[in-house]
Amino acid sequence: MNKEDKLILGGREFSSRLFVGTGKFSSNDAMKLALDSCGASLATVALKRANLASEHDESANILDYLDSSKYLVVPNTSGAMNAEEAVRIARLGRAAGLGDFVKLEVHPDPNYLLPDPVETLKAAEILAKEGFKVMAYMNADPALSMRLQDAGVAAVMPLGAPIGTNRGIETRAQIEIIIEQAKVPVVVDAGIGMPSHAALAMEIGADAVLINTAIAIAKNPAEMANAFAKAVEAGRSAYLMGASCAVSFKASATSPLTGFLNG
Q: Where is each Thiazole synthase ThiG domain found (predicted)?
């Protein structure tokens, strides 16, 4: 990876463009091994899974398995049904010492878990004013992305497909517009099910990707995490080298034979 190609998000530099979620793993040990093996630079955790009391039960508290010296641990507001709940969860995480970074999620629909754009924007405006470094999970809506950036978020996180579906980058056209207009990092989140999906997200110019389900449910999560890490690096390198080549509907010979045949 090009050492001069740096990712700065919320005033912090990240060594890897692979972010990993911590849900759905068969055990906390499996989750820790996957994170440690792939070199992820950021891990998100649902506050509802964290024991924020003074006592620690290592069999239950996921925070005991997350090494904050290796990656930034970012609480998310998963489970929030509206802006009020999301703000309350974020404030709880900050009060518990988890810092100012927060992944903002507001998805009241239990069937599709699609983010609520109105409540997400409302929460983002409040949290940004309170000094939170908001990473806003959102539908792949360019207009909403601009509104969130105007509100002061640190990153926008458009979905590739509904969360947990592993269907890939179904919203490519919208994400490309978001990337073109972005003033903050764009992190593609949700729907990425294969390393090739992650590579595509990076090839079109995303600054990072966040993966959870595809790694957590793999036969070997640590090896799958490594596969995603390699895909992210390859996709980013391709983007930097001009991967977006012009598409043609006609063939073009790579080695013209005219001169050879007439020689």
A: 9-256
